[in-house]
Design goal:
Low-confidence stretches: none
Number of helices: 6
Shape: globular
Largest sheet: 6 strands, mixed
Strand content: 15-25%
Distance between the termini: 59 Å
Structural class: alpha/beta
Length: about 240
């Protein structure tokens, strides 16, 4: 039985403006449904492939602030409506999450600032701005990730060293064992290694499932590590 909080997405492209840029994204061509059957789903693909666009649409459709945070965060530093929201409908499961968080690496500074403004005596600020970027990311994970939660993460590895990515991996698996669901857009071959995760590839046509070894993140990293000198020679041969 599928026990995920968000079990899938249905797309109705008739609800999207004819001139919307979303219609030009190759990964969405002909896509009608996308199902989530595992507690961890990864979105992978090249920059501009549409993975963050879909993740943001899912977050907003589920009630999160477009810039990130919990559902209690209501603020905007850049007024831009996620157009894809008009074309999707979430299929929700029989369970209701107890907590949730939408983490966007690119807007984390704004969320950390807003967190300070929301603080009061009963809820003191975590003071993320007083920590390094990576330390603040992990502090946020520690403060907000727990059992029976729904967590949407957009490139969470951006501020983390490889070692800290392993720490985040451990935290994700811990939460999964306690009933949580994660949908993550990432380029990290470390995070992608989470056991039994499903991987949705946004490259080479419409969104489709792929294995860990088929991801570009794994293949390019493996190629560079095992054939570094040859890769650099070919890459830099025409550079003046």
């Amino acid at each position: 039985m599928n026990s995920q909080f968000i079990q899938g997405i249905q797309f109705d492209w008739n609800n999207l403006d004819e001139d919307s840029y979303v219609r030009d994204i190759q990964a969405f061509q002909g896509l009608e449904t996308l199902k989530f059957s595992k507690p961890v789903t990864f979105f992978v693909g090249e920059n501009g492939s549409g993975k963050s666009t879909l993740l943001e649409a899912i977050a907003v459709a589920h009630g999160f602030n477009p810039e990130g945070g919990t559902k209690n965060y209501v603020f905007s530093t850049y007024d831009e409506y996620p157009e894809l929201c008009d074309a999707i409908r979430l299929s929700k499961g029989y369970r209701k999450e107890k907590w949730g968080y939408f983490l966007r690496a690119e807007s984390f500074y704004n969320v950390a600032t807003q967190e300070e403004q929301y603080a009061d005596i009963a809820h003191p600020s975590a003071e993320y701005h007083k920590q390094s970027h990576g330390e603040s990311f992990l502090a946020l994970v520690h403060d907000n990730f727990g059992a029976n939660g729904l967590y949407l993460l957009d490139e969470p590895e951006a501020a983390l060293s490889p070692q800290r990515q392993l720490t985040l991996l451990w935290e994700i698996v811990r939460c999964v064992k306690e009933g949580s669901q994660f949908i993550i857009a990432t380029h990290s071959p470390i995070l992608l290694g989470i056991p039994d995760a499903e991987i949705c590839c946004f490259d080479k046509g419409a969104v489709h499932r792929c294995s860990y070894e088929e991801t570009a993140s794994y293949q390019i990293t493996e190629l560079f590590i095992n054939h570094r000198e040859e890769v650099l020679k070919n890459l830099l041969v025409n550079q003046n």
